[in-house]
Amino acid sequence: MRFANIGTALMNSRERVLTTIRHKEPDRVPLFLNAVDAKFVKAIGGGNMVETWRQLGIDVCIIGRSTWCEGKPSGLGYFPHPPPPEESLGGSGYAGWNGIDEFGREWKHGRYVRGVVATRKDLHKYSPELRLNERYNRAMIEDWKKNYPDHAFALLSHAGPVGLTIESFGLIEFCYALYDKRSLVQESVELKTEWFIETAKYAVELGVDFVIMGDDMGFKAHGYVSPFDFKELAFPYYRRIVDSLSVPVFWHSEGYVRDYIPMAIEAGIKGLHGMEPEAGMNMGEIKKEFGKDLVLLGNADGNQILCQSDLELVRKEVDRCLKEGMEGGGYMFSIAGSAHEGIETEALVEMCRYLQEAGVYPNQ
Q: What is the pTM of this model?
């Protein structure tokens, strides 16, 4: 099934990605997926994640890091003998999680249900140690880097300081805390910023080309917090993260976050992943207004179009994204969210295949 070399590739994956990050036009639009469910790893790569990336022609290898819930690591859904589907309701990454994780988030049947941090004592109880050698499989990552030097590598760390604070408090409790426990919220964001920086630095040492800070900040029609609160609670900490790392920092958020983009740019964020179309994130408009400052990654509809088997609709969605994002470079094609279990395998495969056919730049 492999179709990674449709036509004549003038660049390898790493060259293609780095050219895009420099806002230049590569030979074709790079293909990026921030997460691929175990369902596809089994069906496409025979249980091997790297082989799945190669078969689909993905240009960026994602480096993850472990977290734990009641002693169980993240990612159990990718193991040879994963937890059953009824214990994997939140996807492969959190399969088998029941109880409270190291950040103070409660899980049932592999799905997040609420946060338990309510006091300063709770906050420090659920502020985990770095455990860098345990969080990262250094030997595996070094092996990947050795065997696939032609690919770009990125850390995806879904532990951004504000989104993680919201999850550890619980959304409703967080909203109340903005008014009556604001200093606790501030302390939480501070602690999580330092944790993010130190864990990301380790990945940079291992050779990642950029870091993706997962910090979900949006509902379907508006952001979680006011622009004023974003300026106070996110902006200075995003800036600190950017200033502390020697590689570009991209921001992943689902939902509507357009009102925050100017502040993210001011903080030094170099890329934006997500841009959910059904949340009102119009990539064409974002490209026109912010494309000179941000590398854009998205915004294919992974909630409807890729969850059905009409492949012509899939190709039309790829065409739409290319029309809105590819001109002038600075764009990587991606699903707005992740390649989750609800996506049809044939739709995912055709999306990747067609992107490599249709995403070639005219001057190539």
A: 0.95
| Structure confidence by residue, pLDDT tens digits, 196-219 | 999 999 999 999 999 999 999 999
Task: Among 86, 107, 127, give the residue marking a domain's end.
Answer: 127
Q: Is 132 exposed, middle or buried (0-12, 13-18, 19+ CB in 10 A)?
A: middle
355 phi and psi angles, rounded to 5 deg: -55, -40
As given in the structure block, the two tokens for residue 300 are: 């294919």
- Percentage helix, strand, coil for the chain under 3-state DSSP, each rounded to 5: 45, 15, 40
Phi, psi of 323 (to 5 degrees): -60, -40
Side chain identity, residue 267: A
Residue 170 is part of which domain span?
155-257
Q: Is the peptide bond before 303 cis (omega within 30 degrees of 0)?
A: no
* Angle formed by the axes of helices 38-45 and 49-56, nearest 10°: 70
User: What is the chain's Cα-based Rg?
Assistant: 20
Tokens of 248: 């570009």
